[in-house]
Amino acid sequence: MTRRTPRSSDGAECDHLRAGRRALRSGHLWVYRSDVRSVEAAGGDTVRVVDSRGRTVGRAFYSDRSQIALRLLTRGDEPAGPLLRRRIESAIALRGRLGIDGTACRLVHGEGDLLPSIVVDRYGDYLVVQALSQGADRLLPDLVAMLVDLVQPAGILARTTSRYGGSKGWTSGSTCCTGRCPRRSRCERAR
Predict the structure, then answer these.
(1) Exposed/middle/buried for residue 8 (C-beta within 10 Å: 0-12, 13-18, 19+)
(2) Hey, which end of the chain has fewer CB within 10 Å, N or C?
(3) Could you read off the pLDDT of 9-46 as tens digits, one per residue?
(4) How far apart are CA 103 and CA 114, in angstroms?
(5) Is the separation of the CB atoms in 132 and 119 below 8 Å?
């Protein structure tokens, strides 16, 4: 029997089953569709995830088209909005501390930087952003604005590949979000 949970203040909520709770407690950032009991949200919403007792587990991107229904952004009651910028700043700072001697690198590595389904690659003066879930795709304008502010690239290309986009109902392709986006960019390989 599906139990309807009360709606949260932002109007989106998701209740998950025991198996998903165990995965989240062990540090995993995903909850599969089969572990979700009920959802009151649209695909792409950032939802409050609650356990069977109504306690908040965290906030997550919700997808109605992927087998990975939830991609956890926060734990507990922390709001997701301000956290995204801090995590992007942290990811960029980490890559800077690594001392990579080339001009091409991955600035944001999705789950590895606690930014599920968000990937940002640098190629010289340009960035390529991949939003690999409905929730990340919905935040793309905000992500681009943050990256312009933090990195000041010559251009940002948003890319959806058929591997991800096709299975989620999006079209494949690339869109220049800001600046100019040449077909090719000169980069130096790291040694």
Answers:
(1) middle
(2) N
(3) 354 666 666 666 777 777 888 989 888 888 889 999 99
(4) 24
(5) yes
Please give the Cα distance from 49 to 130 (Å, whole number).
25
pLDDT at residue 13, rounded to an integer: 67
Strand 126-131 to 155-160 pairing: parallel
Q: How far apart are CA 34 and CA 46, in angstroms?
A: 19
Residue pointed to by tokens 């501390």: 97
What domains can be seen in the chain, in order of their start residue? 13-75 (2.30.130.10), 81-179 (3.30.750.80)
Give the three-state DSSP class for 84: helix
| Cα gap 44→18, rounded to integer Å | 23
Say if pTM beats, i.e. exceeds, 0.85: no
Alpha-carbon distance of 101 to 152, in angstroms, equals 19
How do residues 41-93 score in pLDDT, each as one tens digit? 999 999 988 877 788 888 999 999 889 999 999 888 877 778 899 999 999 99
